[in-house]
Amino acid sequence: QVQLVESGGGLVQAGGSLRLSCVGSGRAFSTYVMGWFRQAPGKEREFVGAISWSGGITDGVDSVKGRFTISRDNAKNTVYLQMSNLKPEDTAIYYCAVVQWRSSYYSSLPRSQNQYAYWGQGTQVTVSS
Question: How confident is residue 33, by pLDDT bands cut at 50, 70 and 90?
Answer without folding.
Answer: very high
